UniProtKB/TrEMBL annotation:
Keyword annotations from UniProtKB, A to Z: Cytoplasm, Hydrolase, RNA-binding, tRNA-binding
Organism this protein belongs to: Modicisalibacter luteus
Assembly behavior: Monomer.
Enzyme class: hydrolase
Protein known as: Peptidyl-tRNA hydrolase
Location(s), subcellular: Cytoplasm
Record: active site: H22
Similarity comment: family membership: Belongs to the PTH family.
Site annotation Stabilizes the basic form of H active site to accept a proton: residues: D95
EC number: 3.1.1.29
CDD domains: PTH
Catalytic activity: an N-acyl-L-alpha-aminoacyl-tRNA + H2O = an N-acyl-L-amino acid + a tRNA + H(+)
Length: 194
């Protein structure tokens, strides 16, 4: 597997969406920024908030697109074109309905599973879906008709604490992933439940 050189956190822009479940991917990037003390800055050429950081001995590009979720791909493609990054060198963090709050999973490749941010990212990368994913569990409302309002809603206090604990565990396992030891990173992360 290729070494990760960039981490992209999917979400929606603006204060209205800042604390909504759909922004769990962006929360991960914000957590890395807090750890490294390198602020995210508006970078118009990448259509997002960008920082270059040293995390666990690795130089990483961090990006939170400031486009809406269903237009995330433009920001990802702009970053890749500028730094000549391959899809395999990306880790895209996103909210995941199919796993519970307080859990997270690494994955490489695969479809979009109905996630509009992943769908647009795959499209913008020329239908290449070989990038790594970090699926941050937000749980499911139980009925497909409720999904839109659910992902655009704010989690309750206990639920947000669980999601944050899952993100903290992601940060703990990221160094192994960045070192290419995906099995070790997955074994630890996939057995964690807050």
């Amino acid at each position: 597997m290729s070494q990760v050189k960039a981490i992209i956190g999917l979400g929606n822009p603006g204060a209205e969406y800042e604390d909504t479940r759909h922004n769990a991917g962006a929360w991960l990037v914000e957590a890395i920024v807090r750890d490294t003390l390198a602020p995210l800055r508006v970078e118009k050429k990448f259509l997002g908030l960008y920082a270059k950081v040293n995390f666990a001995g690795h130089e990483l590009h961090l990006l939170n697109p400031t486009t809406f979720m269903n237009r995330s791909g433009g920001a990802v493609a702009a970053l890749c074109q500028f730094f000549k990054l391959l899809p395999e060198e990306l880790l895209v963090a996103h909210d995941e309905l199919d796993i519970a709050p307080g859990t997270a999973r690494f994955k490489q490749g695969g479809g979009h599973g109905g996630h509009n941010g992943l769908r647009d990212t795959i499209r913008a990368l020329g239908n290449n879906n070989a990038f790594h994913r970090l699926r941050i569990g937000i749980g499911h409302p139980g009925d497909a008709k409720l999904v839109t309002n659910y992902v655009l809603g704010r989690p309750g206090k206990m639920e947000r604490q669980a999601i944050d604990a899952g993100i903290d565990e992601c940060l703990t396992t990221l160094p192994d992933a960045l070192n290419g030891d995906w099995a070790k990173a997955m074994n630890r992360l996939h057995s964690f439940k807050s």
